[in-house]
Amino acid sequence: MMRAWILPILLVLCGSALATGSTARGNPGAAAAVLVVFVLLAAVNSPLIFPRSIGALEAQRRSAEDGRPVVFWRPGCTYCLRLRLRLGRSARRALWVDIWRDPAGAAAVRAVNDGNETVPTVVVAGRSHTNPDPAWVREQLSLPKRREGHRGRKPSSGSER
Q1: Over 80: is that where the pLDDT of 141 sits?
Q2: Same structural domain for residues 107 and 121?
Q3: Where in the sequence is the signal peptide annotated (predicted)?
């Protein structure tokens, strides 16, 4: 849990130190601007901007039931942030697994990425995709909605991509 907050905490501390130095030199306006920038950077790199994370096993179970993509991510990852921001509101439909909080999630990512914890790794219909195009992920997020009436049934092979 603490590992996910290390980068945001460091950003706030660095921003506070720089702001204190600017205030001591008689630049309160610059100090406020620096502090705001660092707090915004901390917020963007915190787990708060991402939908609530669940465990890898629970995510895989839910994905098997309704076909939603599972997104493995970690705080501080610029590619994960890019994916999250480009997905917009539709990101809430995905199942998010923070690999720093869930050892099973980290192991799942290492298993499909040659031992590396490369994120974002998106799993759709049992196939993993490392750092996929956000437009493709958004398209995958719209697919389960069409299959909601068919829970419990596997999609036909003609609908897989």
Answers
A1: yes
A2: yes
A3: 1-19
